[in-house]
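User: Batch of two.

Assistant: Item 1 of 2:
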Amino acid sequence: RENYYYWMHSAWSGIPPGLEKIRIVLFVVIEKNPVTVVLTGRLYQQMLDHALRQPQLEVCGLLGGAGGCFNNYYPIENVADDPHRTFLMDPAGQVQAMRVMRDRGESLTGIFHTHPDTSAHPSSRDLEQARYANIYYLIMSLEHSTPKIGAFYFDGDRFQDTPITIAPPSETGI
C-alpha cells in the first residue's frame, strides 16, 4: 500500500547443524505518517484564539512547516454559504498563505477547522471536501466548555485517526 514503507531483510543461517540452509526473513512495515502529531503550545493557542473569536462558526486555516513539523498557523476567512455548518477557505487567503509559506521555505502540512457543536472528528462533508492528500487535518470541537482537538492523516481516500500532543511552550517561546 502506498501509505507504508516496506523493508525486507533476509539472511542464511548455518545453525543448527544439518539445517544449514534455513532462510531467516524479517519483514517490517513502517507507516509513512508519524505515530503522534506534536503541536506547539504557541500554535495551539493561536488556533484556539481564532476559534473563540467566532465560536458559533467553523473557522479555518492552514498549517505550514518543514521536516514534518508544524511551524506556523495561517488563519483563513471562511466564505462558505453556511459557515455554521461547513467551511470554505477564501481562495485569495489561501493563495496568500501559500506564498508566505513558500517564502519561508515551508510547505502545507495541515488544514485546521472547527466544529462549533459536534465532535472533533471528520464529518462526511469533511471527507467529501478533502482535497489535499498526505497532510494532517486538525479539527477542534467547541461542543463542550473545554475545547478538544483531533488530528487525522488524510491519505487521499480516508482519514486516519492520529494521536496528538500539545507540547508546552519552550523557554524560547516556541
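Item 2 of 2:
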Amino acid sequence: SAEDEPLTGEELRRQLSRPTMTYVKPAEQYKDTKSSGYMLTVIGAAGIIVLILIAAGVVPISLDPVMQYIFYGVLGILFIVFLVMGVNALKKAGEYKNRIQKEASLEEKLLAWLGEQEQKERLDQCQASENSPEEAYFACQDLMKQMLLGKEPDIKEDYMNYIIEKAYSQMYEA
C-alpha cells in the first residue's frame, strides 16, 4: 500500500514540519491563564497608579519637560496594554473553567463507551490479530480513531489522541 512506501525527502520534510498538537486539560489551561491574568492585571493597575502618583507630585521625579511626555506616554500605554491583556486572560480563564466539567464528562462517556462489550470485542480482535505489541498498538489506535470519529465527528484531534492513549493504557497496559 502507499503507506508502506518510504517517504521522499520533500514528503518527510513536510510531515516533520507539520505542527503536532498536544492536548492540555482545561483545568491546567485555566490555572495557567488565571495566574497570568491576575499578574498582568496587577502589574498594569499598579503601574497606572504609580504614574498617577508621579503626575500628581506625590512621588517626586524630576524629568525634562519633553521626557515627561515620552515617559508618561510610553509607560501609560504599556501599563494599559498589561491591564487589557490581564482582563482578557481572566475572561479566557472563565471559558476554560466552563470547559473543565464538559470535557470531564465527555472523557468519562467516551472511555466508558470504548469499554463497552461491542467496542471492546472489536479492539480485542484488533489486538490479537497483530504479530507484535507495537503493531497491535498502532492498529488499535487507528481503529479507536475511526470509532471515536464515528461516535463524535466534531472531536478535536489532540483531545481524541488523549482519549485513545488513556483508553489503550486502561485496557491493555494495566
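The chain has a mean pLDDT of 87.
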